[in-house]
Design brief:
With about 200 residues, this protein is α/β, with parallel strands linked by helices. The chain has a single domain, classed as Glycoside hydrolase/deacetylase (TIM Barrel), CATH 3.20.20.370. The protein contains eight helices and seven strands. Strands 1, 2, 3, 6 and 7 form a five-stranded parallel sheet that branches. Helix 6 links the parallel strand 4 and strand 5. The longest helix is centred in the C-terminal third of the chain and has 14 residues. The radius of gyration is 16 Å and the shape is globular.
């Protein structure tokens, strides 16, 4: 079963995690996980610049260490860098000590303020440790752009149907993502529906 947005119980169990911007205005927040990548990041940045949109890039620490110029490029264009861990660990199968150490190490290459758990998986002890230092950000809508079997049309249809005021949308910054197949069309749709994109004050 595909979950396009986190279930109610996740938000209840982790009350300080940000899933959505609290607003009634037609604003959205684009976020990108897993970069930077020399193949995908420049293409995403060019498209966002064309539409004058700012986004949050939750960067993998290992990739950020390897491609510091891409991290600088993301920042120079007015986007925010977030922390997506160093080794993209699955929180369900990692000790709290190892998990928090991985995130803290990644902060040297990404962010010491914003964190998104890889796979969206976080256990309560990890949450308790990390929330002391980081604002933890998940998402409101996920169009499965990391799964080529899901496809462009389904992803675009899902986004059009599921967005709502305050939605934080998670997309992926890597060559395996289908995001560039639908992102421009999605942006044009949202602008036609009088939505605008913003960087929240996390």
């Amino acid at each position: 079963m595909r979950l396009f947005r986190p279930c109610f119980f996740t938000a209840w169990f982790f009350p300080e995690i940000i899933f959505r911007i609290k607003t009634g205005d037609k604003i959205l927040c684009l976020t990108f996980d897993d970069g930077p990548n020399p193949d995908s990041t420049p293409r995403i940045l060019e498209l966002l610049e064309r539409h004058d949109i700012r986004a949050v890039f939750f960067c993998n620490g290992k990739a950020a260490e390897k491609y510091p110029d891409l991290v600088d490029s993301i920042k120079s264009k007015g986007h925010i860098i977030g922390n997506h861990g160093y080794d993209h660990l699955n929180g369900f199968f990692t000790s709290a000590a190892k998990y928090s150490s991985d995130v803290n190490y990644a902060s040297g290459f990404t962010s010491g303020r914003l964190f998104r758990p890889p796979y969206g998986r976080l256990r309560f002890k990890q949450y308790r440790l990390l929330k002391k230092t980081y604002r933890i950000v998940l998402w409101d809508v996920m169009p499965y752009d990391f799964d080529n079997r899901f496809g462009r049309e389904k992803a675009l249809k899902l986004l059009k149907k599921k967005i709502r005021p305050g939605s934080i949308i998670v997309l992926h910054d890597n060559p395996g993502s289908t995001v560039m197949d639908f992102l421009n069309d999605f942006i044009l749709f949202t602008l036609g529906e009088k939505y605008r994109f913003t960087l929240p004050d996390f």
